[in-house]
């Protein structure tokens, strides 16, 4: 078969797919179980291709591309690895006729051999993956729904030892966009509880809960923090002296705001704000706990010494600190101990906030630890989000 024949055949397949009536592709119940792996983040369980290869993909609201490891993979990737040669529903994306081979933001694409659409993706933390774009059928385990012709990254090289990443970001290649949905939601319980029944992901028609917070849709999803309050036990909170301007998103110069990033374990704050949080924590905890030798975190710009203490989060914090993040238009989050601290050793725990500038960015990041015990519902058409604490995060509760 010549190159011209290949392109002609792919064009026919592409036209047939994109001329489908949208009503046949509306997401009514695309729901997946979510679990945890290695205390790093939350993974959604999906199955891929004709052989329904099981994949645990890290949920990532901070990126848009869905990618999985494909055989052959030149790195030591976790099994099972999807083999495109064993799936009749696998379709290569070619740059001459695919709408996904350009305009993918941070994902670099280029035309390779036989017009194959190649890509490379780099993450803020320095990790990367590369391969080619293809389309495949994905199965969602809770609802037993399937979605055909979902474009994904068929990865040949990656520095991340994961099955892959489920990109939920705002770009057109996001699975949310490809499912023609304007809403998605997830509930996540405790990051250390592998089998928590609270962990669920749902893409489709949902009911937005109140209070709602303005959602800024840029290259990622942002919210504006108005103020941070700090308190302990039953004491009234104190508002930290932080200029709210450092939290406000400026889309023109791409600074400010707080990214909602479910794939980042830790959270990041501007240094001026982090210093106030550290000062408050030290004032409260230094008299009752023994400080641990600072644990170093190596950022992209400089190494940061984390605030750490000897002990166990579940047993040694007799004085329970809490923080309240106040967002624009009245929304808020109450952060408990396991939202703010991370157990890094048998007898050491550290503050789970790091400075944004050490990472080389000028915005805040709401990581997975901060999102524990919350339900987040994204309404993309109205640019709103609801963040609420819940004891019941079943899919039916949406």
From TrEMBL:
Biological process per Gene Ontology, one example term: proteolysis
InterPro entries attached to this UniProt entry: PEPTIDASE_A1, Peptidase_aspartic_dom_sf, Plant_Aspart_Prot_A1, TAXi_C, TAXi_N
Pfam family, one: TAXi_C
Single GO MF descriptor: peptidase activity
Domain of life: Eukaryota
Domain Peptidase A1: 42-388
Keywords from the named record: Hydrolase, Protease
Annotated family: Belongs to the peptidase A1 family.
Stated name of the protein: Peptidase A1 domain-containing protein
Source species of the chain: Penstemon smallii
